[in-house]
Amino acid sequence: MSQVAGAAPSGPLIDEYDALLVDLDGVVYAGGSALPHAVEVLSAVRARGVPLAFVTNNASRTPEAVAALLESIGLAASADEVATSAQAAARLLATRFDAGAPVLVIGGEGLQQAVRAVGLRPVIEAGDRPVAVVQGYGPEVGWRDLAEAAVAVRSGAHWVATNLDLTIPSDRGILPGNGTLVAAVAAALGRQPDEIAGKPAPPLHHESVLRTGGTAPLVVGDRLDTDIAGANAVGADSLLVLTGVTGPSELVAAAAEERPTHVTEDLRGLLHPAEAVVTSAAHTRCGGWRAELEGAVVRVSGEGSPVDALRAVLPLAWKLVDAARQPELRLPAVLATWWRPR
Ligand SMILES: [Mg+2]
Question: Do 40 and 134 have their domain in common?
Fold first, then answer.
């Protein structure tokens, strides 16, 4: 969190950065609809001249399809602004193998296209003697594909997974994601993939940075274990928005490697100054809130916006987590409904 003792917040948060790397699900849209404020805020960021990259672990869609989806919710986007784990995986393969080398592609159209785009040759059977297997989510992937992957890897092919997300969100709820299918092959082979491209691994972050040309990017996401951990792994600043899977309760319990630089309720936080958290030995303050520590209890008092109360609590709660203690929160009743797990 920003800990600027005594300093007044100045310009909008986005002005501290030269590129914005934005996760999609839970940040820009949910269930095929734009999240409130997302379109206006990202349009405003673009109007300020800050380059955007839309960063997704989903390898099944092409960048053109993702851009079309963004257009359909009212956000202008070009395919060049979309960075997928499929593209990051293809770049990994292109650094290792010569143009024209056969690669067994297990996944959707986005992965096929990404492999072709870097000059490698997609094949569909282990009998085609692939030098590598690249495995990503695709709704048509089935047992035969996983069996081909297993045979090829056992024959010595280099194995790259686009990402290891165990689940994928859908309008029917949580469904098996690529990590679940990779785990099936890994269980059969008794080994893990050689490389991972997607968040929280660095390759997709590097792909996104290349896309924007930024040197001081801000990563925006809704998941601690992918978006925020991925930013921390490469030393980038991050913003957690509370519009997706992570709520205040999960954030309070976050391990050190999954803690964001900033937290805001939604993307509007980009256009406001970062709220300063003032810390002293005995307590922390943010906005109109004060938090203090009594043993393992974090006691909150004051008034103001709920997210400021969360900002005041986090440094104290994380101190307890670092000491392997479970933070106990004493919150005023006015925060109780806001402060619930997602
Ligand atoms: Mg997300």
Answer: no
- Choose among 140, 117, 121, 143: nearest CA to 130: 121
Tell me the CA–centroid distance for residue 249 and ligand 1, in Å: 17
Residue 5 lies in a domain: no
Active-site position among 15, 18, 23, 308: 23
**How many Å lie between the centroid of ligand 1 and the Cα of residue 27?**
6
Q: Please check whether residue 283 is in contact with residue 290, taking contact to mean a CB–CB distance below 8 angstroms.
A: yes
Is 18 marked active-site?
no
Q: Are residues 311 and 329 in the same domain?
A: yes
Q: How confident is the model at residue 10 (pLDDT cuts 50, 70, 90)?
A: confident
To the query of whether residue 25 is one of the catalytic residues in this protein, the response is yes
Q: Alpha-carbon torsion 121, 127, 130, 134, what sign?
A: positive
Q: How far is the CA of 335 from the centre of ligand 1 (A)?
A: 25
pLDDT in tens, 163-173: 999 998 887 88
Tell me the pTM: 0.93
